Amino acid sequence: MPDQSHIRNFSIIAHIDHGKSTLADRILEMTKTVDQREMREQLLDSMDLERERGITIKSQAVRVYYTAKDGETYQLHLIDTPGHVDFTYEVSRSLAACEGALLVVDASQGVEAQTVANTYLAVDAGLELIPVLNKLDLPGAEPERVAGEVSELLGEDPDSILKISGKTGAGVDEVLEQLIAQVPPPAGDPDAPPRAMIFDSEFDQYRGVVAYIRVVDGTFKKGDAIRAMQAGTEADIDDIGFFTPAMTPVKELRVGEVGYLITGIKDVTLLRVGDTLTLKHHGATEPLPGYKDVKPMVFCGIFPVEGADYPDLRDALEKLTLNDAALAWEPETSDALGFGFRCGFLGLLHMDIVRERLEREYDLNLLATLPSVSFEVTLTNGEELVVHAPSHMPEPGVISEIREPMIKASILTPKEYVGTIMELCQSKRGTSTGMSYLSENRVQLQYDLPLAEIVLDFFDQLKSRTRGYASLDYEISGVQPSNLVKLDVLLAGDSVDALSMIVHKDKAYEIGRQLTEKLREKIPRQQYDVPIQAAIGSHIVARETVKAFRKDVTAKCYGGDISRKRKLLEKQKEGKKRMKQVGRVEVPQEAFLAVLEVGD
Ligand SMILES: Nc1nc2c(ncn2[C@@H]2O[C@H](COP(=O)(O)OP(=O)(O)OP(=O)(O)O)[C@@H](O)[C@H]2O)c(=O)[nH]1
């Protein structure tokens, strides 16, 4: 067994699609960790959904042994980090479990927003950074230009930057050599009371919570009674080991090592990412720094299309929560949509993933309302509220102030798109806070923006205006008072709570007008005229009408043929599946998201 001085803990960080998983695969292959037959592409992305979307959600940690050119065998732990802004806290904890990181940059694309954001996170965590240019095999690779950008970012000599291809494996052995030479071994004290940081935790149906840990001091043994210092959770270690990536049990994990620990606890919130584990008796007194309670930032209502599915939806949410400490939810009743849940997510991707898993893994047919953020509201009587759903916003007369969450956004783009991006940010109530050149053609724009504007369609618009070339990264920066109002939508005279939204007062008329227009397109004709109105309080700001019309699908079948008639009716019912009866009006799912198309 290699000793402490022969351990290296590292992460691979990169912008999405720059080749992190592919490089990880090559490293596993080269160190013969994985049998060639078992080797499938992107082994570390374990969930089906991750595979399909090609993104990494959960961090993973694999131990490999590598015999370096100096003849010594080293024990390397590769900690995979999620690549998306929604999961920044998880990334920061994974990085805190390492001493070094490979910064992978696609040599045909160059430095992107997440390259920069991840670099800052790694530098903050005090890691030794080894930049690597990837995809050198591509004809479009521009290693000189990209080396220049990386050198601008890190202050590294451009000639010393490694150039590799994760796909062909060229140069990957040199990456491992550099890693051993440059990344320091873990520093902890082998004789101190044991401490370990949880950098990820996931729920296994059979074994309960699997905590991914980095041992910082001392040794943890199977059977030890342990305590999570922040949550106060106490339990015994049933199983402890490391990943190859298969779980490999061992008697103990020593100082500096990375692996897993299982206690039989069934709830991920009891062993949270960032918490410090120690022994129950004679344990450490100081928890490790950096623990943070992650809060959901984006909210939406989720309702079953069939009211009868409500208990199944609750069941599914309960199961998902076991695996996802960041997912929050509470029951919500909507006049329009019936019984459902208000769910809170870390961000938009997190929301999409949860919705997709609910529909796919639990076979539920769902309606989701427009995403929104949480507003802090001070009432005229001095009372303070937090409002997660637009329909819960109090009447304007009793509000003295509304504060909304703000973000600091960093956008990287080729310079020809600077104009259109500035226009977009301005239309989203953004304030420019800086602009700098990373290279001759690459510009970094900085903006303060309301999160509420980002959760709608900002990202899509950014991508379409820049033909996919701009990248965005952001962090929540606080709250700010804003002149916001609730815009209500009335269908056939009835206010539809699920269509309410909070908008800036200056934009309310325009959004109201566009929204009613979109809704008129989305709502099918009914047996009578359906007026669609947008209102602020009792003041109507826009109006459209869906004209009456009845589509009789059976009209064409003259008499006799019952089975054909039944088939047609059956088909019509199928088409209605995603329709919701709102008062007297049938409303399709797209209508609840119509506002996303406003401003197109
Ligand atoms: N030609 C070429 N393609 C590569 C190379 N490395 C990765 N790719 C391809 O680039 C795409 C993205 O690679 P991934 O390894 O999934 O990227 P990633 O950074 O892990 O992506 P996320 O998990 O989404 O952050 C895949 O289609 C890979 O096959 C390389 O060296 N050369």
UniProtKB/TrEMBL annotation:
Domain of life: Bacteria
Compartment list: Cell membrane
Keyword entries, A-Z: Cell membrane, Elongation factor, GTP-binding, Hydrolase, Membrane, Nucleotide-binding, Protein biosynthesis
Keyword Cell inner membrane included in the entry's annotation: no
UniProt-listed Enzyme Commission number(s): 3.6.5.n1
GO molecular function: hydrolase activity; translation elongation factor activity
InterPro entries: EF-4 (IPR006297), EFG_III/V (IPR035647), EFG_V-like (IPR000640), EFTu-like_2 (IPR004161), G_TR_CS (IPR031157), LepA_C_sf (IPR038363), LepA_CTD (IPR013842), LepA_IV (IPR035654)
CDD domains membership: EF4_II (cd03699), EF4_III (cd16260), LepA (cd01890), lepA_C (cd03709)
Binding site for GTP: 17-22, 134-137
Topology versus the membrane: Peripheral membrane protein
Start and end residues of each Tr-type G domain: 5-187
Reaction(s) catalysed (UniProt annotation): GTP + H2O = GDP + phosphate + H(+)
PANTHER family: TRANSLATION FACTOR GUF1 HOMOLOG, CHLOROPLASTIC, TRANSLATION FACTOR GUF1-RELATED
HAMAP family: LepA
Function: Required for accurate and efficient protein synthesis under certain stress conditions. May act as a fidelity factor of the translation reaction, by catalyzing a one-codon backward translocation of tRNAs on improperly translocated ribosomes. Back-translocation proceeds from a post-translocation (POST) complex to a pre-translocation (PRE) complex, thus giving elongation factor G a second chance to translocate the tRNAs correctly. Binds to ribosomes in a GTP-dependent manner.
Family from the record: Belongs to the TRAFAC class translation factor GTPase superfamily. Classic translation factor GTPase family. LepA subfamily.
Protein name (Swiss-Prot/TrEMBL): Elongation factor 4
Organism: Svornostia abyssi
Phylogenetic placement of the source organism: Bacteria, Bacillati, Actinomycetota, Thermoleophilia, Solirubrobacterales
